[in-house]
Design a protein that fits this description.
single chain, mainly alpha, 8 helices, about 75% helix, about 0% strand, flat
């Protein structure tokens, strides 16, 4: 499985946790792919403890099982997955900052590699700059000049059109008070954009 970033890992963990809680079985390879070695060790240790508990005690009722702390393999996995989700949430801000830093490094590298190659090919600095900015656009990275040249596919355009139609329909069904609040919000956002520029 390719390396997942924190957001993707969180989505996969949440999905697998929901499946476990719904009573579905998860393939061992998915468990190994989503959990860290320390979490896998925690899972194995917790299950080994449960196996040892089963050898030592034979409770007759559910109350006895609960008093002894008996858990099924699914319950042990749920606990470990919840712990893994908590860990990812705890580390998410630092991971997002690192992802942003890596994106900025890539953006800079793409720009200056292309710019340097164009200068080495005896091109004018202005032409080299344009080629470097175009390379950033092709790499789907923000451009240094701030221009936004999103390359949308046919499907993207259809989705945008449908989104606009939905917004128009929702706006038509709003009450006067809701419409007034929306207009105030749009005005505030427009002013914020002007201040940023």
């Amino acid at each position: 499985m390719p390396k997942l970033d924190s957001i993707q890992l969180l989505e996969h963990l949440d999905k697998r946790l929901a499946e476990l809680e719904a009573g579905k079985e998860i393939p061992p390879k998915d468990i190994r792919a989503l959990l860290t070695p320390a979490q896998l060790q925690q899972l194995n240790a917790a299950w080994a403890y449960q196996e040892q508990l089963r050898k030592l005690h034979r409770p007759r009722t559910e109350e006895d099982k609960q008093a002894l702390g008996w858990k099924t393999k699914r319950q042990v996995r749920i606990e470990v997955f919840k712990s893994a989700v908590d860990t990812v949430w705890k580390n998410l801000p630092a991971d997002l900052n690192e992802m942003q830093r890596q994106k900025e490094i890539k953006q800079t590298r793409v720009y200056f590699d292309t710019y340097g190659a164009a200068i080495d090919a005896k091109k004018e600095p202005r032409q080299a700059r344009n080629e470097a900015l175009a390379a950033q656009t092709r790499a789907h990275l923000p451009r240094f000049d701030g221009a936004d040249y999103n390359i949308g596919t046919k499907r993207d355009k259809e989705v945008w059109k449908m989104e606009e139609e939905l917004k128009a329909r929702i706006r038509a069904n709003m009450t006067a008070q809701e419409l007034e609040q929306l207009e105030l919000l749009e005005e505030h956002e427009a002013n914020a954009r002007k201040r940023r520029k």
